[in-house]
Amino acid sequence: MDAVWLGVVIAAVVTGAAATPVLLARGLAQLARRDATGRGLGLAGALGGTAAGTAAVAVAQRTGIWELAPVLLLWGCALVAAACCDAVTQRVPTALVRQAGVLTCALLTVALAVHGDWPGLALSGVAALASGLTLLLCWRFAGAGFGDVRLATLGGLGLGHATHRGLLLAFAAFTLISVTQAVVTVMRGGDLRSTIPCGPALAVGFLLAAAA
C-alpha cells in the first residue's frame, strides 16, 4: 500500500507540475498578455502545480475517495494558473476560471455521487457560494477585483472535505500573504490605495484549506 501511495503522489506531482504552466500560458493568452510569460513565472507555476498535486492526493487519502484526486488536481492547477496570471497582470482570466469551474463541478458531482457522499457535495456547493459571496463583499466595499470573486467561487468547490484546522491555516496564510504584499507595495512607494493582486493569497489559502 505504501508503494501505491507513493506512486500516486509522484504521478499527481509530476502531472501538476507539467499541466499548470500549460494552463498558465492559456490564461495569459486569454488576457492577451503572452508577453508576461517568463522562466520565473513558469517555475512558479510548476511549483504551484506540485503543491496542487500534493493537496489533491492528501484529500483523496484522507477521505478514501480516490476519484477526488484527478478532480482536485484539475481544480488546484487551475487555481494556481489563474493566481499566477493575476500576480503578473493584476487580472484573472475569466474564461480559464469559468471553464475550470464548470469541469470541476461536473467531475466532482460524478465522483461524490458514485460514493453517495451527498454531504461532501453539498458542502462543496456551500463553500463555493460562501467564498464567492465573501469576495463579492470585498469587491463591493474593499476594492477587490471581480476576477477575485470568480476565483474564490472556484476555490470553494474544493473545500467539501476541509477541516477546521485547514480553514484556520488557510485564513492565517491568506492574511500573512496579503499583509506582506501590502507592506512591500508601500515600501516600493505605493500607498493604501494601490492595487494588490489577491490571486496568489487565495490560491495558497484554498490549497491549504483543502489539504490540511
Could you walk me through the main structural features you see in this protein, from its secondary elements to its overall organization?
The chain has 212 residues and is mainly alpha-helical. Helix content is 80%, strand content 0%. The chain is built from eight helices and no strands. Helix 2 (39-63) runs parallel beside helix 8. The longest helix is centred in the N-terminal third of the chain and has 29 residues, at 2-30. The relative contact order is 0.13.
Number of helices: 8
**Range of strand content:** under 5%
* Mean of all residue-level pLDDT scores: 91
Task: State the secondary-structure class.
Answer: mainly alpha
Largest sheet: none
Distance between the first and last residues' Cα: 22 Å
- Tell me the radius of gyration: 17 Å
Q: SSE order, as H and E?
A: HHHHHHHH
Spans with pLDDT under 50 lasting ≥5 residues? none
Oligomer state of the chains in this structure: single chain
* General form: globular
Would you spell out the secondary-structure blueprint of this structure?
Elements: H1 2-30, H2 39-63, H3 68-89, H4 94-114, H5 118-141, H6 146-156, H7 164-187, H8 199-211
